[in-house]
Amino acid sequence: xxxxxxxxxxxxxxxxxxxxxxxxxxxxxxxxxxxxxxxxxxxxxxxxxxxxxxxxxxxxxxxxxxxxxxxxxxxxxxxxxxxxxxxxxxxxxxxxxxxxxxxxxxxxxxxxxxxxxxxxxxxxxxxxxxxxxxxxxxxxxxxxxxxxxxxxxxxxxxxxxxxxxxxxxxxxxxxxxxxxxxxxxxxxxxxxxxxxxxxxxxxxxxxxxxxxxxxxxxxxxxxxxxxxxxxxxxxxxxxxxxxxxxxxxxxxxxxxxxxxxxxxxxxxxxxxxxxxxxxx
Amino acid sequence: xxxxxxxxxxxxxxxxxxxxxxxxxxxxxxxxxxxxxxxxxxxxxxxxxxxxxxxxxxxxxxxxxxxxxxxxxxxxxxxxxxxxxxxxxxxxxxxxxxxxxxxxxxxxxxxxxxxxxxxxxxxxxxxxxxxxxxxxxxxxxxxxxxxxxxxxxxxxxxxxxxxxxxxxxxxxxxxxxxxxxxxxxxxxxxxxxxxxxxxxxxxxxxxxxxxxxxxxxxxxxxxxxxxxxxxxxxxxxxxxxxxxxxxxxxxxxxxxxxxxxxxxxxxxxxxxxxxxxxxxxxxxxxxxxxxxxxxxxxxxxxxxxxxxxxxxxxxxxxxxxxxxxxxxxxxxxxxxxxxxxxxxxxxxxxxxxxxxxxxxxxxxxxxxxxxxxxxxxxxxxxxxxxxxxxxxxxxxxxxxxxxxxxxxxxxxxxxxxxxxxxxxxxxxxxxxxxxxxxxxxxxxxxxxxxxxxxxxx
Lengths: 280, 457
Fold this sequence. Notes:
The structure holds 2 protein chains of 2 kinds. By secondary structure, chain A is mainly alpha-helical. Chain A has a domain at 85-276: MetI-like (MetI-like fold, Orthogonal Bundle), CATH 1.10.3720.10. Chain A has 12 helices and no strands. Chain A has helices spanning 3-27, 39-43, 47-50, 60-72, 85-116, 118-131, 139-147, 150-175, 179-187, 192-230, 235-244, 248-276. In chain A, helix 5 (85-116) runs antiparallel to helix 10 and helix 10 packs antiparallel against helix 12 (248-276). Chain B is an alpha/beta fold. Chain B has 3 domains: 2-95, no CATH class; 104-186 and 291-343 and 373-450, Periplasmic binding protein-like II (D-Maltodextrin-Binding Protein, domain 2), CATH 3.40.190.10; 189-288 and 346-368, 3-Layer(aba) Sandwich (D-Maltodextrin-Binding Protein, domain 2). The interface between A and B is large, with 38 and 42 residues.
């Protein structure tokens, strides 16, 4: 894209964001309700309720201030149930990495195998088709019941949700390697191992990376929900805990951070995917 | 605190009746408050708990105990009982602090004021005083807390008192024997309605309402159903009752998804604080002294770590006694309100605990025993809960009420101490009480169910 075009799109983005903030600010402007007469009674209520209203959505300024509070001191520990937002995000990323890593260890070799053999491909297909659409959170009660450890259970849930996209993409990528290249390998009498690593793997790499990119996105989506369900630590727990306190400002901060971290994870894998693509 | 009363006094009812709702006379209330004085009276307090438990066990019917005491006198009774029951040994067994098998203990809790004794024991040092290093872990829901306790991630947990019964009966989960060594709080719930129903204070006008309760197997569900049915509203046909986790209740009330709820505090007070609801009635008005949440520990934990269990229970009994004193409530509210525990504004928790609260309609009410704390797990509570499970069709067929109550609610300190002393624990520890003016006789639960016009069984 030419430079001027990029500048224009950036300006447009900023404009849209500013417009969004302005609408938000106007929409959450405090209404002019009269203060309750009995001050002792008013003190027992939240500020909105004291002026005879329901508590309102926070304004962008409230959220900004809250965000600054969190960013200023992200790694504090004030007890088991009260830790800084940086620590919570680190817990979540750690879980995603573990579950995702384990899934990659299983899915890529298995996908390779399935992709190489049309027989296995057809044999595995019905299982994959049934297991793939199951919401990962539906596994949670089963995992808690059988694994008997909530931390491992949430990692298992990440594992199971990131498994399928990688498995299917790997199998597809491997089975779709161009016939001519395999034939060339055969004419040159390349050993099977060498064929796998030097012909099939590089050829299928872009598809495998796409699968991994989809997987990490899903894993990040799921971890928040899983942590809300199980609690303890993680950004999902943070959201749940602040929901408990009906603190919309805190929840909005968390939402923003979840989005940023998700984008970061996606960008990392996009970079990796670009590194393994090849011109045909 | 009925657990802390003088059991040798014929004038004392080992059940409800004073300013805090737990003593026969105001004078006795003061005496109990004094006895509970933490620094000096902790030992005496434990002795009193043991004596009460023994007397209760020997005389399951309060009337019998009082007649006996009136006939022979307290002194004679004491010496007579001492001859065949080593009271001293039992008190010692309760008081002795053997080597703790496990110093670090994890306890799960749900962030509601029912968990007060479990939570406050950490910041206020009740666990530390017993040499325990306790971690209290906030948990997202009742099913999760159950599973985590089963998985042994938690050594003990905060549960709704009907849960261990439901689990033991095998309704809503696999049958697994659970134990309730202590009830945490009595009273402390309320029916909250959306502010738009300000003028609909008569339950008869509630047809078509949508209500929320925290869990199917909760006192909240049974009390709401009872209340509605007493007003001629069929809880299954005329209204809708859903199970909604407490944190979502205020949000749902705000969004008009529900018309009201019967919920644990601080949810009710929080609805007032946020200007979305008003407190229609405290559950204390339906049944003064009803149990709500329980302190539950797995049987395995109790048997493999008897000293740790005893130390834990001691901490909880001490904390409960401390919480029972109205003058301590403010301090407790400040200790349990932070993010690490309830994560609520201090004023909300304070209004719940002190009973000096805004009702959402512009009035300030003063109900000191809005929530109260009493550790004794009465078996008649268990029988009432099961009678409601049966009434609403959660349990089909016959229940051996007394047996289940004994198995679940009798895994108490009292029984344990009696067993340690080499005695066979007597059959029941029950008391009569009335719910909305209707007396419940724990000896005839089935007749009780039959007496209701609206029922499912």
